[in-house]
Each structure stands twice: as C-alpha cells, then as structure tokens.
C-alpha cells in the first residue's frame, strides 16, 4: 500500500509511526527491517513467500 504526503500509521500495538516523505510504502511481507515501512526485503524472498 502506498501512502502519499504526511501520514500517521498506528500499528497493532498502538504505536504511531509518522512519515513526511512524498510517497511511502507499507510492508506487506512482514520481514522488513524498517517496519511498518517497506525496505524491499520482499524482493529477496522466494516466490511462494512474496505478498
């Protein structure tokens, strides 16, 4: 999922994450080192584990 402009995302634990980038991507593979943001880790996963 892509977010545009300044956004605040609240995770399941109630922690708020803010981004001010023009475009930000949320992680869907659950393996990002920068959760909740996508860091491209999904590109390294085998096809069957990709979102």
TrEMBL record:
Keywords: 2Fe-2S, Iron, Iron-sulfur, Metal-binding. Residues 10-48 form the Iron-binding zinc finger CDGSH type domain. GO terms for cellular component: cytoplasm. One of its GO terms (molecular function) is 2 iron, 2 sulfur cluster binding. The keyword Metal-binding applies. Pfam families: zf-CDGSH (PF09360). The keyword Oxidoreductase does not apply. This is Unannotated protein.
């Amino acid at each position: 999922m892509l977010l545009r402009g300044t956004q605040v995302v609240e995770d399941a634990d109630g922690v708020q994450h803010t981004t001010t980038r023009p475009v930000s991507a949320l992680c869907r593979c659950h393996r990002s080192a920068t959760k909740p943001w996508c860091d491209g880790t999904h590109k390294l996963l085998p096809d069957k584990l990709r979102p």
